Amino acid sequence: xxxxxxxxxxxxxxxxxxxxxxxxxxxxxxxxxxxxxxxxxxxxxxxxxxxxxxxxxxxxxxxxxxxxxxxxxxxxxxxxxxxxxxxxxxxxxxxxxxxxxxxxxxxxxxxxxxxxxxxxxxx
Length: 123
Known about the structure:
Oligomer: single chain
Helix content: 25-40%
Radius of gyration: 14 Å
Low-confidence stretches: none
Structural class: alpha+beta
Number of strands: 6
Mean pLDDT: 92
Strand content: over 45%
Order of helices and strands: HHEEHEEEEH
Number of helices: 4
């Protein structure tokens, strides 16, 4: 039997691939701290994160799950991501690490195999 936090991580990946940001938002704690690749300052709070992604962004990210490791407090997701933006595509590998409390993500970090390419792609 897979840990419930691993199941939630798989559901979040599925929601990402479907573009269902509402489902992802439901998995976040109101006080979530969201660390982004290449951004030294995290986004703090679900409302601030929603505002950051509001307004119809010009990019989309999908991911192919490689593995999930989870316990009561932490989840690590290993995936290959594909970002599209303005007719361009970037593929990269990522490790997503989250703290979880009461079934909701309280803090998230993402690490990649090519941070410089990600920064340039989304600049």
